[in-house]
Amino acid sequence: MSVDFFRALSFDEVKAKSDRFLLGNYGRPIARAFSFGQGEYLFDSEGKRYLDFHCGISVTNIGHSDADIVEAIRDQAERLIHSSNLCYSQEQALLAEALVGHSFPSRVFLCNSGTEANEAAFKLARSYGQQARGGATSIVSVENSFHGRTTAGMSMTGQSKIHGGFGPLLSDMVYLRRNDQDLLRKEFDENGSSICAVILELVQGEGGIHVLDREFVRLARELCSEYKALLIVDEIQTGMGRTGKLWGYEHYDIIPDVMSLAKALGSGLPIGALLIGEEFAPYLGKGQHGSTFGGNHLAARAALETLRIIVGRELLENAAGISEYLFRRLRLLRDRFSCIREVRGIGLHIGVELDREGGALVNACLERGLVVNCTAGNVIRIMPPLNLSLDRAAEGMDLFEQGLADFQAQGR
Predict the structure, then answer these.
(1) Residues 379, 353: contact at Cβ < 8 Å?
(2) How far is C-alpha 64 from the geometric centre of its chain's CA atoms?
(3) What is the pLDDT of residue 198?
(4) How many angstroms separate the CA atoms of 287 and 160, rounded?
(5) What does the pLDDT average to over 319-329?
(6) Above pLDDT 70, what percent of the chain?
(7) Among 296, 300, 294, 316, which Cα is nearest to 243's?
(8) pLDDT value at residue 309
């Protein structure tokens, strides 16, 4: 079979080849093939422009094709893309130093994705439980959470739809109701000696943009300290400025023991990280875990430049201001459109809960040139870039309002 290895394709060609040759495990609810991005805009294979309020599921937090990111990737690609983790790496060393300097930990493990970061967190927690906690193996999670699709990631996830169809998952997982302080305290009172860790997704992204209560999170911190269990914070989606602060845990005035990162860390290049406090680092020691590609020269360079941009360009301040505007507009829309049940979230991590399935609203927005997505069946997830201007925020809300008008009319 003769194959043209790269050429421009129409959308119909992209779809046909994807349907024919790819596994088919994705539903592709955003039925477009994007071929170019610039700033807050995406352009599809037919040349139509879209305002991106999706950011690749909170990955392109500084928009598309940022000149400094492009130059850093180009420069690094010309130098060295990959050697291996059997060697030292300048890019890894600088990235780890920057992550430590801008958060709590003293050690960093680099990998390729969020679920791999949580896999490492699972192994760290179990190793700590075996060596320092008398064989403790129980990990406490929260219902409706999402921590990835590896075996450990699925097991720590508090959603039956993620568990189903694979047979028995890992044992000794406990799922508590979100924000139920009494249940959390009861679990520690009755089983504290067997708990090696608590893992929290501070904003349940895939679960529908539910923000954990401050009191619940702070109680988890207190109980973990009291019983000497690890507090693992999953910041795969909330980290790198998505909540209006660099890290979501800053909203709670706590310090976790372990934090998992990915998504926006590399501005689209695959990289994940596990940040670990000093006293717990020895429990995932030499030879106990690893990754062939994790934190290779190219991905680490992109991540270092991304962190520099978010911290150095005052994007967190901009995100906080744009967040205030978007919430104000969305709450006005809620008062006008009966199809909106609730508007919730934090920073630029926003969910609009509808009274029915939201796929039709995603399509209505796409037709008008706005990219959003739907999670948990009926929650529209709005996640624009952190450097969005007020004018573009207003444009996005105008397009969303037009989509809502069509969506509400369809439901009558």
Answers:
(1) yes
(2) 17
(3) 98
(4) 33
(5) 98
(6) 99
(7) 316
(8) 98
Q: Which two tokens stand for residue 140?
A: 């406490």
Q: What pLDDT is stored for residue 4 in this prediction?
A: 73
Neighbours of 401 (CB within 10 A): 16
Mean pLDDT for all residues in the chain: 96
Asked if residues 231 and 195 have their Cβ atoms less than 8 Å apart, the reply is: no
pLDDT above 60 (res 1) = no
Query: Between the CA of residue 203 and those of 107, 209, 223, 242, 407, what are the distances in Å?
Result: 24, 6, 20, 10, 27
Give tens-digit pLDDT for 73-111.
999 999 999 999 999 999 999 999 999 999 998 999 999
Q: What is the pLDDT of residue 412?
A: 60
Planar angle of CA 64, 148, 57, nearest 5 degrees: 20
Which pair of tokens denotes residue 220?
Answer: 């988890």
Is the distance from CB of 196 to CB of 139 less than 8 angstroms? yes
Q: What is residue 6's predicted lDDT score, i.e. its pLDDT?
A: 87
Q: Which residues of 332-344 are buried (b: 16+ CB within 10 A; e: fewer)?
A: ebbeebebbeebb
Contact 239, 258 (CB under 8 A): no
Given this model, what pLDDT does residue 105 score?
84
This prediction has a pTM of 0.96
Query: What does the alpha-carbon distance between residue 7 and residue 19 come to, in Å, rounded to a whole number?
Result: 18
Taking alpha carbons only, the member of 334, 318, 331 closest to residue 390 is 318
User: Which amino acid would we find at residue 347?
Assistant: G
DSSP state of 66: -
Alpha carbon distance 293, 288 (integer Å): 16
Contact indicator for 408, 401 with CB cutoff of 8 Å:
no
Amino acid at 215: E
Contact 61, 85 (CB under 8 A): no
- Among 344, 408, 351, 396, which residue's Cα sits nearest to residue 374? 351
8 A C-beta contact, residue 54 and residue 371: yes
